[in-house]
Design a protein that fits this description.
Elements lengths: L3 E2 L2 E2 L23 H20 L12 H8 L7 E7 L9 H14 L6 E7 L3 E8 L3 H6 L13 H12 L7 E8 L17 H15 L3 E8 L9 H5 L3 E3 L8 H9 L1 H11 L7 E5 L5 E2 L4 E10 L6 E10 L4 E4 L4 E4 L4 E10 L10 E7 L1 E8 L2 H5 L12 E2 L4 E7 L4 H24 L6 E6 L7 E4 L4 E4 L7 E11 L2 E11 L8 E5 L4 E4 L2 E6 L11 E3 L1
Parallel strand pairs: 3-4, 3-6, 6-7, 7-8, 9-18, 10-19
Antiparallel strand pairs: 1-2, 1-8, 4-5, 9-11, 11-15, 12-14, 12-17, 13-15, 16-19, 20-21, 20-27, 22-23, 23-24, 24-25, 25-28, 26-27
Helix pairs in contact: 1-3, 1-8, 5-6
Length: about 550
């Protein structure tokens, strides 16, 4: 069988069993009562060493978990330990009880004076032996009985009830561990509230353990069976969800595994201390937001970078800053920066470039606000040391805060606007001249006005300029004439657009178009367009309207 966590097998790098056999017995080394007892000493010694937080030697600057624990001052963070020691009659076999006393001494030496220890022995009934602060190992061990009770039963249920009762006190701290050392199965005396290994009483214990978690207690259990068949240790996992049970079959691997188990309490302390830093990173902002003038292409500013953590050091690599939407370069920040928890550092930076002059670069003063953009990858040296048990979830990007930086510059060309105006005027003038040449050409020739029904002398009106007002003296009425140039197969020609009203009112006004040499009738008056062009270039005719 393998070590289990929360009742599930735990995969461990077990050594080849052939390498661990004893030549004399051809049995796996460490098996049997004496081997298990020696394993218990090793287990608790490793647990104590982990609790002491002795730094591991490293060849580089990458911190170990012990370094992290020291930096966090975890020895000043209290934890509750409820230690349950089996003192039933079977503990006298093979010197198990003396072995447990020795192992407990090593374990207690590794605790901080800020920790709280509740030491219980249990056989037919549990007995509190010491309840108080850790730090005085000799005093705590002196409270243990000299020998186990030879006639004592093994009531593990009542022992766990006492441990939970201690952890339910009003001044209990947030990190708690229950350590169970037993060499047998649950074998309670008559009248025990826990006559069997299952039932409502055990369910009640499990609910009490879960209630501790719901009120914020980080509760874990460690069960160490001291003999083959000590199934009572499994019951710890039925009560405490986060329980680790070490199986006798894996004694040869207890050292490496229990080093992890011994680190569990300190990990949970670290998790509580670091809970407020989860998801915290580095922020950046403009320090002084006075308006900068970039007309000359150069200015200075300041950028402040702040670690938002309380305990975790942070490092940003590949640090680079820029602004959005403007061709401005920024220099002055280091490529790599490490910030202590809560540290703020301000750097002077140089801005080079100028503001964009836009799609129409005419000379003008331009003001804009540029947001800060920061790129780089944020991490912490602690992440690797604490993973995968404590995840800091450090945001990889630097978060920018605060308002944008105001910038000013004189941009554009001094000659562009006058040039644009001149070009627009020239285009309009050309278009107007082109329009006038077509729609208002110069007039030549004469316009002969004759009443259709006779009776009056004709009016002969010379055509000069681009528009002629009609005020016939003999016929009367009013009107106007202007030309329109047209393209024909025979070449360009100028037609007349004639407007005429016999009584001078717009109500009776009519229009007609008359080509060179042509004749049209408008409101009873015949209009004949006489030109001086050759006859072969003067197509006769016209149209009235």
């Amino acid at each position: 069988m393998k070590p289990t966590v929360r009742g599930r097998p735990l995969a461990l790098p077990f050594r080849d069993r052939a390498a661990t056999k004893s030549p004399a017995t051809d049995k796996p080394a460490g098996r049997g009562p004496r081997g298990l007892a020696r394993a218990a000493v090793a287990v608790l010694a490793l647990l104590a060493a982990a609790s002491l937080g002795v730094p591991a030697a490293t060849a580089d600057t990458t911190p170990t978990r012990a370094d992290v624990y020291t930096a966090l001052g975890l020895d000043d963070q209290p934890a509750d330990y409820a230690v349950l020691v089996d003192t039933s009659g079977s503990m006298t076999d093979e010197g198990r009880y003396d072995t447990v006393r020795t192992a407990l001494g090593l374990f207690l030496d590794g605790l901080s004076s800020e920790d709280h220890v509740a030491l219980f022995t249990f056989d037919s009934t549990p007995e509190p032996r010491y309840i108080g602060a850790a730090g005085d190992t000799d005093r705590i061990l002196s409270t243990l009985p000299d020998t186990p009770d030879e006639n004592g039963a093994t009531d593990i249920g009542s022992a766990l009830d006492s441990a939970l009762g201690e952890l339910e006190r009003s001044d209990a701290v947030e990190v708690a561990s229950v350590v169970l050392l037993t060499d047998g199965a649950h074998s309670p005396p008559d009248g025990s509230p826990y006559p069997d290994s299952t039932g409502p009483a055990w369910n009640a214990l499990h609910e009490r353990a879960r209630a501790l978690g719901e009120r914020g207690t980080e509760l874990a259990g460690y069960a160490l069976p001291l003999e083959d068949g000590a199934t009572g240790a499994d019951l710890l996992g039925d009560v405490i969800d986060d329980a680790t049970v070490l199986r006798p079959d894996s004694v040869e691997d207890l050292g490496g595994y229990l080093e992890r188990a011994g680190d569990g309490t300190r990990l949970r302390k670290a998790g509580l201390v670091l809970a407020g830093d989860v998801g915290k990173g580095i922020s950046a902002t403009w320090t002084d937001r006075r308006r900068r003038d970039l007309t000359a292409g150069d200015a200075t500013a300041e950028i402040t970078l702040t670690s938002t953590t309380r305990h975790v050091p942070l490092t940003v690599r590949g640090l680079h800053v820029s602004v959005s939407g403007e061709p401005v370069r920024i220099s002055g920040l280091p490529a790599t920066l490490t910030l202590d928890p809560g540290q703020t550092r301000t750097f002077p930076v140089r801005l080079r470039g100028t503001l964009s002059d836009g799609p129409v670069p005419y000379l003008r003063d331009r003001d804009t606000d540029v947001p800060l953009r920061v790129s780089g990858r944020v991490s912490s040296a602690w992440e690797q040391a604490l993973a995968p048990d404590v995840r800091l979830k450090v945001p990889r990007e630097v978060r920018t805060t605060g308002a944008a930086l105001p910038l000013h510059a004189t941009v554009g060309s001094a000659v562009l606007l006058p040039g644009l105006i001149g070009a627009v005027v020239a285009v309009l003038l050309i278009r107007w001249l082109t329009w006038r040449r077509t729609h208002r050409p110069r007039l030549r020739g004469e316009l002969l006005l004759t009443p259709v029904y006779g009776g009056q002398l004709p009016d002969r009106i010379p055509l000069r300029g681009r528009r002629v007002q009609l005020r016939p003296q003999a016929i009367g009425g009013r009107g106007s004439v202007h030309g329109r140039r047209r393209s024909t197969e025979g070449g360009p020609r100028v037609d007349l657009l004639i407007r005429y009203t016999p009584d001078g009112t717009s109500r009776r006004q009519s229009d007609a178009t008359c080509g060179p040499g042509g004749q049209v009738v408008v409101n009873g008056v015949s209009f004949t367009y006489l030109t001086q062009e050759p006859a072969d270039r003067v197509p006769a005719g016209g149209r009235s309207r």
